[in-house]
Design a protein that fits this description.
By secondary structure, the protein is α/β, with parallel strands linked by helices. Helices cover about 30% and strands about 25% of the residues. The chain has one domain: Metallo-dependent phosphatases (Purple Acid Phosphatase, chain A, domain 2). It is built from 8 helices and 12 strands. Strands 3-2-1-11-12-9 form a 6-stranded mixed sheet. Strands 4-5-6-10-7-8 form a 6-stranded mixed sheet, with no helix packed on it. A hairpin with a 2-residue loop joins strand 4 and strand 5. The radius of gyration is 17 Å and the shape is globular. The mean pLDDT is about 95. It binds fe (ii) ion. The site of fe (ii) ion (FE2) has 7 residues, from loops.
Amino acid sequence: MRRLILSDIHANLDALEAVLNDAAGNWDEAVCCGDIVGYGASPVEAIEWTRRYADCLVRGNHDKACAGLLEMGDFNQAARASVLWTRAQLSAADMDWLKGLPAGPAFRADYQVVHGTPADEDEYAITAAEVEPIESHLLRTVCFAGHSHVQGGWSWQRGGLIPLSRPGFSESERVIDLDPDYLYLINPGSVGQPRDRDPRAAYAIWDTENRLLHFRRVRYDFRLAQGRILEAGLPEILAERLATGR
Ligand SMILES: [Fe+2]
């Protein structure tokens, strides 16, 4: 089984299409760690694809906010503006679908999926200190998470917590051997708004048969996504950050 792991698409159709082209023929099932909408200018298309293809998915905080299920107290001005704009684009059926998205964690036989952490769907866990307490909530050997928009993760090995490395700026892939005796918290990175200083779209493929995780980065024409954002009248900062991956 080869699973396509996507997170934080954030209504960026151009990045999503680039990822799907890159992954074409290399996956059997799709997993989505939430934040399908918000920030970007193609929420309808992002929902359409996810609704059709994601075999396992959880909601993100932006999905909740757009669905009216989350107070926007923690959202900055640009994020709030994008929530209000997104709501205006969605049909009643899309809104109902967003409202009905499950909170993480979602479980399957050999993995679990969360947006933030297994303990709190809206929490960030990037550093070892933030990740370490999560261990008791890991009920499968592999847990996929999004939210931080930072590709990578951690493994709990006998010697302690070891970080997983992502592709360097000149590489398109980093392959990790998954040891069945270790626990893994894996963030595929953000398809539509990377924040790990690499503006390329991020995703992962989990090849269960060979116990391999492929972290991938894909160049795409972010100027197209920027144009859609500006044309929609969304805040300029949401377009600008796509060029820098910050
Ligand atoms: Fe996000």
